[in-house]
Amino acid sequence: MTTTREEKTRVSQISKIADKRLAGGIPCFVQIYGKDIGRKYPLDKVQTTIGRGPDNGMVCDMDNVSRTHCKIYAGAGGSYIEDMGSTNGTFVNDEELTARRKLCNGDFIKVGGVIFKYIDGDNIEQLYYEEIYRMAIIDGLTQIYNKRYFMEFIDREMARCQRYNRSLTLIMFDLDHFKKINDEFGHLAGDYVLKRLANGIHAKNIRKEECFSRYGGEEFAIVLPDTPKQNGAILAEKIRVMVQETKFEFETNNIPVTISMGVSEMQKGDTVDAFIQRADGKLYEGKQGGRNRVMS
After folding, report:
1. How far is the C-alpha of 282 from the C-alpha of 288, rounded, in Å?
2. Biggest CA-to-CA distance, the chain
3. Which of 47, 70, 107, 113 is deepest in the core (most CB within 10 A)?
4. Sign of dihedral through CA atoms 68, 54, 113, 208?
5. Contact 71, 50 (CB under 8 A)
6. Ramachandran class of 238: left when φ > 0, alpha when ψ lies in -120 to 50, beta otherwise
7. Alpha-carbon span 252 to 288, nearest angstrom
């Protein structure tokens, strides 16, 4: 019986995967956003499909995921991903796939409303547990700090600034009419807006000693140590204008985006809850007053 070249290649690939498995080095996907956050998917087969159908190797049971959405190939040179003609596309690091693409350690893969991180390297288990720790403080969609980290940070900074009589300012803001964006353009568009907005603000306006976090849903918070309220209000207005002037385009749709912002400075004797509620109250005033404005 003659063995074809294709069969020899397939056997060779399976052998390499088996060798890597014995060494504890099978690449994997870790879900960082979606229903099963933290779940690990070893890529231990020559081909693994992702989709909402129950026959897929990785099942994502969501309406915006196609029945067979994409496929991962384990080859001698690494792992490759290819879209399978999905309705909403497959994205690697925010770029839509148009052809088969090799994956690199740390790549972000978006399949409908689910985001995975690809992990590969010499010590997969260590990298996996490092990612689990990171997920405890980082929001999976926007890749900025989450509410848990924000609460720890503001509690620590309030104690420090009260001890040394330093200023501490908090900015709370959220997107105007975000539900309308989801209803009119779809939840994938809403995810795109949140991520692009967070990335733009973080890159141009946040210093390393400050904390920018997703507080919940479409609401965000910025903690500004050693900063008086008037300076915080200036930064807030700068961010408001930047967001208003940013072009948010998703699947050829231009999405108008504005934000309302509340600014408050810590007062003597403040608790964390009182400080947050005062900034949130200013945010509410801005929304009641017509939106797309800063209140301080």
Report:
1. 10
2. 86
3. 70
4. negative
5. yes
6. alpha
7. 32
- CA-CA distance, 200 to 248, in Å (whole number)? 11
d(C-alpha 143, C-alpha 275), whole Å: 25
Residues 287 and 107: their CA atoms lie apart, in Å, by 38
Give the C-alpha separation, 161 to 262, whole Å: 20
What is the structure's pLDDT at 4? 58
Residue pLDDT, tens place only, 266-295: 999 999 999 999 999 999 999 999 999 999
- Segment 52-109, tens digit of pLDDT: 999 999 999 999 999 999 999 987 789 999 999 999 999 999 999 999 999 999 999 9
**Contact between 278 and 295 (Cβ < 8 Å):** no
- The Cα 1–Cα 7 span in angstroms is 12
Would you say how long the chain is, in residues?
A: 296
CB 146 within 8 A of CB 133: no
Please say whether the beta carbons of 43 and 25 come within 8 A. no
| pLDDT tens digits, 150-208 | 999 999 999 999 999 999 999 999 999 999 999 999 999 999 999 999 999 999 999 99
Between CA 171 and CA 4 the distance in angstroms is 65
Contacts of 54 (CB under 8 A, 6+ apart): none
DSSP state string for 40-55: EEE--SSEEEEESSTT
pLDDT score recorded for residue 2:
53
Q: From the CB of residue 267, how many other CB atoms can be counted at a distance below 10 Å? A: 11
Would you say 39 and 48 are in contact if contact means Cβ atoms under 8 Å apart? no
The predicted pLDDT at position 5 comes to: 58
Which residue carries 């399949």 as its tokens?
111
* Token couple for 179: 């539900």
Residues annotated as catalytic (active site), given as ranges:
218
